[in-house]
Amino acid sequence: MDEENFLNPRFINLETGDPHAPDRVKYPRFSPLGEGYPHALEEQFERILTKIDNAWGTDSIDEVFTELIIDKRGGRQGFPNDALNDIFRLKEFHHSQKILAVEHKTQAISQLVALGIPMTNEAFMATINHGDQKMLDLFLKAGFAFTHLRGEQDASPLMVALKKGYTVCASMLLMAGDYPNFKDRLGLTPLLISCGKPTKGYRMISEQLIIRGAHTNVTDPMGNSPLLLALSSGLLDLAKLLIRHDAKTDLINKAGDNAATLLLDHCDPSDPDYQEVSQALLAKN
């Protein structure tokens, strides 16, 4: 991986992991910071880190940083030094990425032209259908507008990538602004597609969707919620995250299963997360 792609958070490989980036960080957008990853902000003020992540690259990001750094109303308790340093580092990182984005856009457009790839909706969707990460990165760097596009069953580009198993492309699309709660004609959402699949790529994209505000209580045509899907595949770490993000624990699918029965039937009691999930189910029910 060359330096340019390493600086681009869309190039984080969720299947194998980038050897230069921290393993399984919650916010892969900030992985290029390496040891400067905002651990303190994540541990102490994750709501704020999520707000920064969601506003990244939008018109509102400068206002977000200003509100965090400058107390306009007065009397607000300041951030601890480590968290404040994370905020300043993220602000500088965003500024550098904004400058790079202008350069990357010109270069990406030139590369697409040189390759004879038209910047059309058909060419973009073909790129996703083939899981071509490098070509998708060029389209995204070139500023191609894609969130209005639809594939089979009216699936969004993000959902098309997930259905085909291209979790790296899905992560790239999510970080580029694709909507995490879009529903296709089958009633599926990105989280319903990714939850319950045990591979590392699907598990990590599920975490990213949850952090970015994916609805945790939607159900598929069989009545399965993301929590039920996670438990049916024994994914206790994902189930724990869903419960922390207000997933309902009393839903029953069309087969008559609920979270408690799926926990007993499909999950390993020796898993470190088993007791915590079990206690959370008892407390909520």
> Number of DSSP helices?
15
Average pLDDT over all residues: 88
* CATH top level label: Mainly Alpha
Major β-sheet annotation: none
- Following the backbone from N to C, one meets helices and strands in this order, namely HHHHHHHHHHHHHHH
| Domain unit count | 1
CATH superfamily, by name, is Ankyrin repeat-containing domain
Please identify the structural class as seen in this structure: mainly alpha
- The CATH architecture designation is Alpha Horseshoe
Compute the separation of the termini in Å: 49 Å
Bin the helical content: 40-55%
How many beta-strand elements?
A: 0
Rg (C-alpha, Å): 20 Å
Please outline the helices and strands.
Layout: H1 3-6, H2 39-44, H3 46-55, H4 61-69, H5 81-115, H6 121-129, H7 133-141, H8 157-163, H9 167-175, H10 190-194, H11 200-211, H12 226-232, H13 236-244, H14 259-266, H15 274-284
Helix pairs in contact: 4-5, 5-7, 7-9, 8-9, 9-11, 12-13, 12-14, 13-15
Q: How would you characterize this protein structure?
A:
- With 285 residues, the chain is mainly alpha-helical.
- Residues 1-22 have low confidence and may be disordered.
- The chain is globular, with a radius of gyration of 20 Å.
- The protein contains 15 helices and no strands.
Could you list some keywords that capture this structure?
Serine Threonine Protein Phosphatase 5, Tetratricopeptide repeat; 285 residues; 53% helix; globular
